[in-house]
């Protein structure tokens, strides 16, 4: 057998993925991303394939080389010269998930929380919303958001109220400096705000209206070593989301969604306060 990924959408509409544990994905048959939203078309298959109206919420993803990979659209030519094109990736909502111990072992230098792939001859993705998640590398990691090699991945891209480690490069695109230069080049309209970026190096030019923590301890989690990622009352980021609520995943709601889900291990999945 060959390990590729844990969940992959090449074609799907109006789906909700909730209350699952995705664990143990490494670089083998593919590049180690746990979750993929990548529309694909093939000769002889319905050319109207799409990945759209997908909600991914209240899931735990852990012990994976990388996190989520998205692609804006897929085009190819069949043997008869016909152009086959999927519908553009659109209306993807990712909320209240915890990604824990992303980038383990020898893959730390290449590990990405989110990779956004685009083709120059395809339309940008539309209405991708990523909010109120907790993303944590297991080691240093490569980056939080990586994109390129082509222009504009998405229109109206939303990344808000998340708590996340940033890796070495934070938000980085091909042929662009980390931070705002990448954001301006690869996103046509964006809301990147209300996030807590865990970043020991303050040179990445993060977008305004976000917050920085120098390390995991500075965030004010309950007990991250045992899986409690709820903010304590002493956390400086309590109520600092754009909605005046706590950034990061809703820990209590996630713990309830995962109740009764077995991981194959005896240790608790998430510790509630």
Write a compact overview of the structure shown.
The protein has 2 helices and 23 strands.
Describe this structure in words.
- 5% of the residues lie in helices and 41% in strands.
- By secondary structure, it is mainly beta.
- The chain has one domain.
- The protein has a seven-stranded parallel β-sheet, with no helix packed on it. Strands 1-4-7-12-15-18 form a six-stranded parallel β-sheet, covered by helices on one side.
- It is globular, with a radius of gyration of 18 Å.
- The model has no long low-confidence stretch (mean pLDDT 84).
Keywords:
single chain; 273 residues; mainly beta; six-stranded parallel sheet; 2 helices; 23 strands; globular
Summarize the helix and strand pattern as letters. Answer: EEEEEEEEEEEEEEEEEEHEEEEEH
Task: From the alpha carbons, calculate the radius of gyration and give it in angstroms.
Answer: 18 Å
**Mean pLDDT across all amino acids:** 84
The low-pLDDT segments are: none
Domain module tally: 1
> What is the terminal-to-terminal distance?
40 Å
Number of β-strand runs: 23
Form type = globular
Biggest sheet layout: 7 strands, parallel
The number of helices is 2
Outline the fold blueprint:
Elements lengths: L6 E3 L2 E7 L2 E5 L7 E5 L13 E7 L2 E5 L1 E6 L3 E3 L5 E3 L4 E6 L2 E5 L9 E6 L7 E7 L2 E4 L5 E6 L5 E7 L2 E3 L5 E3 L6 H7 E7 L2 E3 L12 E3 L7 E3 L4 E4 L19 H7 L16
Parallel strand pairs: 1-4, 2-5, 3-6, 4-7, 5-10, 6-11, 7-12, 10-13, 11-14, 12-15, 13-16, 14-17, 15-18, 16-19, 17-20, 20-21
Antiparallel strand pairs: 8-9, 22-23
